[in-house]
């Protein structure tokens, strides 16, 4: 979570991707169809409460909550990216943890060929093996749901589009016309990422941003600059994003039409903050059922999600929330 204590941030930086990597290979626990798995209460450090946990404490909390899951923790050092971060439209987007996905190929062992990256504000309600099995053709490094109806130009400043060395020239020669994709859910071929030196290429765009201010959002635009028009498209069911509203108001939003495999509270409004404040949106009650911070007394009062309102094929097979 964005407001978690610094030591927890380090542990969670790569944890989401690696937990799902292991789950996709069969190491994850599966709940009964349609049932809500019961998790043990995590230590009180959600949203920065309590003492800062070390790796050992984080490992113990995860082992208690997911007893059948094999996992590894790969700490992310915030100082690897701190000097490259520019001011964003929302302060939370400036947190170093938002940029941890740039370093997955460096943090994970070389023998790991592929990773599923998930933001910390997502809830999977389907078997992530299906996402893991996404085919990546030879030309693709990243697979993600694309949203070609979105106004792609608004993700960059007028200074970017008016610069003769930037603008449309950046996207010339791509396999397809560039479309927006949300980087909160991605399948990444780590071998191609390493061989293409994409971490360095992301950092180059971040350095240029500090000089010219070519975008307003945080860690998303460099991925658009590198991969828009080259992304292997994934079904939209794997990123029902925007449930946190926009980056200013964070208003309540409903699910998009169609089947749902993953719910994503992208935007300013986070379900744990709205629940803590006593002003939850309707879909936030779904998050509450899986929040590891909720004690046994609270869990009994959590509103069970209406899976019938999602899709008959979207019942929870493996559910993770961070």
TrEMBL record:
Give the Enzyme Commission number.
Answer: 2.4.1.-
Leader peptide range in chain numbering: 1-29
Provide this UniProt record's keywords sorted from A to Z: Glycosyltransferase, Signal, Transferase
Its transmembrane ranges are none
Pfam family, any one = Glyco_transf_8
Q: Which domain of life is it from?
A: Eukaryota
One GO MF term attached to the UniProt entry:
glycosyltransferase activity
Query: What pathway does the UniProt record associate with this protein?
Result: Glycan metabolism; pectin biosynthesis
Broadest EC class?
A: transferase
- List the GO terms this entry assigns under cellular component, sorted alphabetically: Golgi apparatus
Q: Which PANTHER family match?
A: GALACTURONOSYLTRANSFERASE-LIKE 9-RELATED (PTHR13778:SF40), GLYCOSYLTRANSFERASE 8 DOMAIN-CONTAINING PROTEIN (PTHR13778)
Give the record's family classification. Answer: Belongs to the glycosyltransferase 8 family.
State the protein's name.
Answer: Hexosyltransferase
